[in-house]
Design goal:
The complex is a heterodimer.
Chain A: H1 14-49, H2 51-59, H3 63-88, H4 92-123, H5 138-174, H6 184-208
Helix pairs in contact in A: 1-5, 1-6, 2-5, 3-4, 3-6, 4-5, 5-6
Chain B: H1 9-29, H2 38-57, H3 65-91
Helix pairs in contact in B: 1-2
The chains are: A mainly alpha, B mainly alpha.
């Protein structure tokens, strides 16, 4: 039967391997910050140019759903942090529970988001054929709403990938792959999950709280 | 075996509670017209929440130096793109430029 090598050949020891994995994930996270950063920059320019349209657009956001979703993601990050702690302690049962909770809350966010998009579509808050808000700020409002769909949509795609990754972690944890000695994938995907939370923490005030 | 300490449940719960409280604060303040401070306050609160999550949930507080530099570099780079783009737009009206 093939031996499971915990420390890959190129690393001196387990600690160095862990640090390399963490650094690698952080470098990836920085590229994600650049990806979303480009869109945040576009938002910043258009908010500066079309202030009134952005205020109008924000007024039509579903604040309650947005606030609840913010809380959902924060709690999911708490559960993910607890999952990492369980993995560090080699406790399989809490690890499974916390990973399950994280994936569940991530899915709750996506369901609420989908419902939110549906509400917007019903109201005609979609640039193009369905647009129902003609007025002096109609054009700038559409810029705001388009940015909203693009940025929260990209965020939702990342969150979906995150839920998938946590599901994979669940399967691996179920099979007993993780222990106090080896649990790097849990830590590293935990970092990715927290990034998704972080991005939302900035999306929320920028789209839902423009006054 | 691992130099990175295990963050206790109490710390995680306090960080999450702090982030939740700040969410309530920012939502309430976001409904009040505090012009011209609304954006600054909202972003400051978001940054505070982000700091809590980065330092404690993402363990940056306990992470070795090189990795922390990468985190800082990412933040600074984002600042560069925002600053570089906005200082172009904001200053365009300042001087008479041919063609404008």
């Amino acid at each position: 039967m093939a031996e499971l090598r915990i420390v890959a050949e190129q690393f001196h020891d387990l600690q160095q391997q862990r640090e390399a994995s963490t650094l690698g994930m952080w470098v990836f996270i920085v590229t994600e910050v650049m990806l979303f950063g480009g869109m945040f920059t576009a938002y910043t320019v258009y908010r500066w140019v079309y202030r009134a349209g952005f205020v109008d657009g924000s007024r039509h956001m579903e604040l309650l759903i947005g606030a609840i979703n913010t809380a959902v993601l924060i709690v999911s990050s708490l559960l993910m942090a607890q999952a990492v702690q369980s993995a560090q302690r080699g406790r399989r049962a809490p690890l499974l529970t916390y990973l399950g909770g994280t994936a569940f809350l991530g899915s709750v966010f996506l369901v609420l988001k989908a419902f939110e998009y549906y509400k917007h579509a019903r109201e005609g808050l979609v640039p193009g054929r369905l647009w129902a808000f003609d007025g002096p700020n109609s054009g700038p409002m559409q810029v705001f709403v388009w940015l909203y769909y693009a940025m929260t949509g990209l965020h939702a795609v990342h969150l979906t990938v995150g839920v998938g990754l946590v599901a994979i972690l669940l399967a691996l944890a179920w099979r007993g792959t993780f222990s106090a000695v080896y649990h790097t994938p849990v830590e590293v995907i935990g970092l990715y999950w927290h990034l998704i939370d972080l991005i939302w923490l900035f999306l929320f005030p920028l789209f839902y709280l423009v006054v | 075996m691992f130099r990175e300490p295990i963050v206790p449940t109490s710390t995680n719960v306090i960080v999450a509670a702090g982030a939740l409280v700040l969410t309530v604060v920012t939502t309430v303040l976001g409904r009040i017209d505090l012009a011209p401070w609304n954006l600054v306050i909202a972003l400051a609160i978001a940054a505070a929440k982000a700091l809590l999550i980065v330092l404690y949930f993402m363990h940056v507080r306990f992470t070795p130096g090189v990795t922390r530099l990468v985190v800082l570099a990412g933040v600074l780079w984002l600042g560069l793109i925002l600053m570089g783009t906005m200082d172009d737009y904001v200053t365009r009206a300042w001087m008479d430029v041919p063609g404008h």
